[in-house]
Amino acid sequence: MKIAMIGTGYVGLVSGVCFSDFGHEVICVDKDPAKIEALNRGEVPIYEPGLEALMEKNVTAGRLSFTLDLKEALEGVEAVFIAVGTPTRRGDGHADLTYVMAAAQEIAELAKDYIVIVTKSTVPVGTNRQVKQTVKKANPALDFDVASNPEFLREGAAIEDFMKPDRVVVGVQNDRAAEVMADIYRPLYLREFPIVTTDLESAEMIKYAANAFLATKITFINEIAALCERVGGDIKQVANGIGLDNRIGNKFLHAGPGYGGSCFPKDTKALARIGQEHAVPMQITETVIKVNEEIKRRMIDKLLDLCEGSFNGKTIAILGVTFKPNTDDMRDAPALTIIPALVGGGAKVRVCDPQGQHEGEGLLPGVHWVEDAYKAANNADLVVILTEWNEFRALDLKRMAKKMSVPHMADLRNIYSPKDAKRAGFTAYASIGRGQFFED
Q1: Residue 321 contacts residue 335 (beta carbons within 8 Å)
Q2: Which of 412, 99, 167, 154 is nearest to 264 (CA)?
Q3: CB 327, CB 359: distance < 8 Å
Q4: Which long-range contacts (CB under 8 A, 24 or more apart) does 393-401 make?
Q5: Pick the catalytic residue: 28, 228, 263, 307?
Q6: Smallest Cα–Cα separation from 161: which of 267, 18, 25, 330?
Q7: What's the CA gap between 341 and 80, in Å, rounded?
Q8: CA 31, CA 84: separation in Å to the nearest integer?
Q9: pLDDT tens figures, 361-418
């Protein structure tokens, strides 16, 4: 099949590359000349393990190309995917559909033959019907269908998720569109991965419900962790104990400094807004949003305790600023709440992150970037683990403690243990929801 992909951001680029690896002919379109020029040179604008090599493979095979020209891209295609941004709209928390509707308008003006217009972007319930109305109004003669095909890609594991998905969700209105979508995903169907076919509204809701549930699970375990700190429990043991219940499961039960990223913050806000608009308040989701922000701020208090009540004049080493490992994504990362509080409190902050500097330099003014965790810790008063990159999972803690002026550690991802830290020479250690110590 021939497929057009509008948008070469995270979702559009990963999806386009993976569809081409299925054997389809894919042409990716973007309005940014610099981005298209870079892609045509073989440069990937995002960090995603394995993506650059897979892109090169399919470009070389002639199945994948990039263009600024949507008219050219639509020639002979059977499906066009809209994979543009839907950022949180200022003021009301709703998803901004400006780019989605602009893409629908352009498709209507340029398409000639029957085509399935597929929304890949995360959009509120009812958006695909709006897309249909927009296209019909712009080009009443066009023969087309719309489909909803939400993505469920984890940053850092997106290719694996696309090629071996838990499920593929497809929302359609008729058998004709369903058949086109079945052909697109035929390689997965043949390997018996679940293809869930629904109506448009159910497909749209599945995406929001899934992300809101996972955000709720993270926030729940973070609240339990806070209680463990007060009553003396160990959140790792608690999470293991409840996670072994098949009704609960052990995923997304890792306590930390709060969720971030491109999906959970945006999608929980959008779901809350959808509920408000339809007079069905999403009270659990609204509480999750509120509590997650409180958790991030609570981390600042934890660091303040390790700095004897004041950040002023302290040197603090931050290990990891992206919202999770194996990505360069800084969107709504806990670091964006925590680090400005340190800088604003008068601390000298050194930052080490394997992929975060490019994005982080513009988002975290007033910090000094270093390429090595031990350089960051040199003569520091506190080292803080914010992102659980593999590089930070096997640190020589004894070496790090010796380099520090005041060997204090805040392990906000529970990588190590109080026993590990004390044995290495740290005189104070704090983590999330379990043991800590402060020596006199």
Answers
A1: yes
A2: 154
A3: no
A4: 397/421, 397/423, 397/424, 397/425, 397/426, 398/424, 398/425, 399/374, 400/373, 400/374, 400/424, 401/425, 401/426
A5: 263
A6: 18
A7: 45
A8: 11
A9: 999 999 999 999 999 999 999 999 999 999 999 999 999 999 999 999 999 999 999 9
Other C-beta atoms within 10 Å of 93: how many? 17
Residue 189, helix vs strand vs coil? helix
Retrieve residue 287's tokens: 């509480």
C-alpha distance from residue 2 to each of 15, 114, 258, 406 (Å): 14, 13, 41, 61
| pLDDT beyond 60 at 85 | yes
**Six-digit token string for 408:** 């204090």
CB 225 within 8 A of CB 255: yes
Decide: helix, strand or coil at residue 236. Answer: helix
Instruction: Determine whether 18 is an active site residue.
Output: no
197-to-128, 130, 167, 184, 310 alpha-carbon distances in Å: 15, 20, 10, 13, 56
Written as six digits, the tokens of 54 are 């897979």
Give the pair of three-digit tokens for residue 331.
Answer: 């969107």
Spatial contact of 271 and 212, defined as CB atoms under 8 Å apart? yes
Per-residue b or e along 163-172, where b marks 16 or more CB atoms closer than 10 Å to that residue's CB: eebeebbbbb
111-170 per-position pLDDT tens digit: 999 999 999 999 999 999 999 999 999 999 999 999 999 999 999 999 999 999 999 999
pLDDT tens digit string along 202-219? 999 999 999 999 999 999
CA–CA separation, 262 vs 275, rounded Å?
Answer: 21
Please report which helix (H) or strand (E) contains residue 122, including its range: none
Structure tokens at 311: 């950040």
Tens digit of pLDDT for each residue in 67-78?
999 999 999 999
Give CA torsion, residues 425, 431, 437, 440, to 10 deg.
Answer: 70
Q: Are 140 and 146 in contact (CB under 8 A)?
A: no
28 alpha carbon, distance to own chain's centre: 22
Let me know how long the chain is: 440
pLDDT tens-digit profile of 304-314? 999 999 999 99
For 249-287, write each residue's pLDDT tens digit: 999 999 999 999 988 999 999 999 999 999 999 999 999
Rounded distance between C-alpha atoms, residue 30 and residue 36, angstroms: 7
Token pair of 66 as six digits: 């990039």
Cα angle 377, 228, 239 (rounded to 5 degrees) comes to 90
What is the Cα–Cα distance from 74 to 103, expressed in whole angstroms?
Answer: 12
Give the chain's domains with CATH numbers. Answer: 2-198 (3.40.50.720), 206-440 (3.40.50.720)
In the DSSP assignment, the letter for residue 69 is -
